[in-house]
Design goal:
The chain is mostly helical. The protein is 84% helix and 0% strand. It has two domains: 121 residues, no CATH class; 49 residues, no CATH class. The protein has seven helices and no strands. Helix 1 runs antiparallel to helix 2, helix 1 crosses helix 4 and helix 2 packs across helix 4. The longest helix has 44 residues. The mean pLDDT is 87. One of its GO terms (cellular component) is plasma membrane.
Amino acid sequence: MVNKEKSARLFWTLFKSTFVLSAFTFGGGYVIVPLMQKKFVEELKWIESDEMLDLVALGQSAPGAIAVNTSILVGYRMAGLLGALVTVFGTVAPPLIIITIISYFYMNFRENPIVDALMIGMQAGVAAVIVNVVIGMVSGVIKQRDVVNTLLLLAAFVASYFFDVHVVLIIFLAGLVGFINLSYRAKMGVGK
């Protein structure tokens, strides 16, 4: 009986956490990621910070929305396939509900200056949160004190920003270099 209660509590916490994060986050996956980190790493202490960074990287490299992909990975990490289903439903339900409601009233407030001002204000807030995410992810890579990863980070930025290299190629090459680096470090007996 205790295991069923504990299991039900885990699933409810997974659903409630992802539902609330998704419902009150505007701006896409890069906005929800730091909130997921705060919830699952800092508050619930279910996942280590480095592992969360890995889950975000996997979520970003998989096709689809980063918020959904990362929530699936967190759910799977915590409770297997059923956990992944619970978290994906918790993440997808709020936007689905909100967009359904908005679609009914869209024509009425499409030209409303108050709604327009709200959207502009939310864009500024979203930009600030995205900058915070970037700073957090970059500092996570730099804290690892791995020169190859730091150079890889800089090279990926330069390739994307200055040379407009396609993101799929950058992800593939970064994954390949990361794999080679990890294999080399493991072979040489160098720590993480």
